[in-house]
Amino acid sequence: MATAPSDYVFQDEFTADSTYEVGEAVSLWKDAWRRLTSNYFALFGLAVIVLLLLVAIVSQFWTPYPTWKQGIGPTYGGPSAAHPFGLDQVGRDILSRLMGGAAIALAVGLGTALLSSVIGIALGLLAGFYRGWVDTMISLLINVWYGIPDLLVVMLFVVIINSRELKWIIVAISITAWLNMARLVRGQTLALREREFVEAARSIGTRDVGLLTRHILPNALGPIIVQATYLIPAAILFEAFLSFLGLGAPPPEPSWGAMCAEGYKSLQLAAHVTLVPAFALAITLIALNAFGDGLRDALDPRMRR
Amino acid sequence: MTLETSPEVESRVVDKQLALVSVEDVTKHFPIGAGLLGGGSAVRAVDGVSFEVRAGETLGLVGESGCGKSTLGRVIAQLHPATSGKVIFQGQDLVPMRGEKLRRMRQELQMIFQDPYASLNPRMTVGEIIGEPLKNFGLARGKERSNRVHEVMRTCGLNPNFLNRYPHEFSGGQRQRIGIARALVLNPTFIVADEPISALDVSIQAQIVNLMEDLQNRFKLTYLFIAHDLSVVRHLSDRVAVMYLGKIMEIADSHSIYENPLHPYTKALLSSIPIPDPDLEAKRQPILLQGEIPSPVNPPSGCRFHTRCPIAQFPICSEQVPPLESKVDGHLAACHFAGQL
Ligand SMILES: Nc1ncnc2c1ncn2[C@@H]1O[C@H](COP(=O)(O)OP(=O)(O)OP(=O)(O)O)[C@@H](O)[C@H]1O
Ligand code: SF4
Ligand SMILES: [Mg+2]
Q1: The whole model's pTM is what?
Q2: Domain spanning B19-34+41-125+181-333: which CATH class is it, in words?
Q3: ipTM higher than threshold 0.85
Q4: Which of A8, A87, A282, B9 would give a disulfide with A77, using CB separation of 3.0 to 4.6 Å?
């Protein structure tokens, strides 16, 4: 063996050596999926999310009645066969508006989660990787930003942009929502940059961009996904709150928050106008948070409280 | 064309008199508690080390845990910036190099890590891990790259069919082969191997050592082979350097180190190795070193070994630093009373 062994010899060795470890570990994601699907609360959350997604997609092509059309039936009409959730203060079909509202909620939730994650991940990676003055500047920005009320930021943004279109609402919420993601990613990056495989990657001539995208980011993905999942319900709630205050997407957009606000004035007369969207909002938030918790536990059992 | 018949390998010199790497008075201090009031102290992990690694040889670097072997290896491989000193490789000092120039240099100078679990990215497949160095230097693309990866995997005793597997699906020994393949794929001249077998099962260790020796012959590689124990490097080193508390105590060709150690520390290390022959083993008298290894934050004055040396004489040993100098033809030792134990 010591004298110039052929490749063939090594192959033999390989097969001999490999017998006892094949099938040693299931992949990390498979393992996480198994843990997730054995958590009933998380599964309930997932089911609601899937339903919501379907409703949102369907609403883009079909609703029982147009979401904006007034006077379809009696004002404040109660639930009936034709209008399962009744009618609102101007005689619009609440089921149709609820469906349209699901699309708005999901657009806001997913859009904000995506955009604010991109901002938070980028700044967190830079701060954690380069440390020094880059970190000082970004950390300062984060701390100052924390001190400014989110509502103030959104209001200023909406005034400056001079538009309440849904896409601008998403941008406005995103620029308030990236802070926790940035902190999380910064911490992960600080820890990961010291790991030996990152040092090894440096030794084979990997550039900074490669270190960040191929080595650090993929290894921080679990906590990032969990954090992003929590951003979705938070953004939906924030948008509902803005719409409730009249700062969200302008009428007749069927935002659940706006629907609650409109019905609120006649709560005693026709409670269903408020209760139906409020209930939809509550279920959605509970489901998303349940799914987030399940995902967190599934991806990192050590994080379980 | 295979790797071993490439012009780079063909033209590589194996001349065990010629320095490939010269380490000149290198120090590496890790500051601790610095900042407030300026006057922080430091871990003096490597504290004034000079030696050379010759073209085509294996230089064993040995010492107890915490003496600074890994730090020295990383400083030479430019993974830690040296605090001071020079690392001259192919006529150029690597220490002041930064950015793209240093990155280019890394093609020639690779590292194999101690922990085959921690040193492989768990989110990359074996093919991606071994192909990454080629990608970094734009050396081969597409089919050509995958051919190179296949070739190197076979050379390192890995089955290329397992290209798309993740590191956790392999045993420690195979993971170490992946780490070796990653270092080899760039066709480097010099490899720093930081305790490449100490994390492995004893049964696997010999396989990895054999692989590394085979690769050295085929590709005319030069190794700095780090180990914490003299017995590990015995049969694979041309020369051996013994390190204690951030300094080189003795350096000589293997035969001289094992047969005629001049430094009391080397002697003590050797005496603690069990001998397979039962008769000789019965006669073996281990030299027990008293006390703990002192802290590298505050190393002893004079000779660093004086707090534990069985033949220390005072005050000279605690006052004067013994220089690392030639005692008998090319056998260097740092001791005022070399050869007297
Ligand atoms: N990044 C670091 N920051 C601070 N101190 C460090 C750092 N790396 C190493 N040290 C210290 O430097 C000294 C030498 O460490 P090093 O890892 O080089 O030793 P070693 O000889 O490789 O030991 P081992 O056999 O345990 O691997 C130790 O005291 C260690 O605590
Ligand atoms: S110089 Fe003195 S203390 Fe140091 S090894 Fe030699 S005899 Fe021992
Ligand atoms: Mg070490």
Answers
A1: 0.87
A2: alpha beta
A3: yes
A4: A87
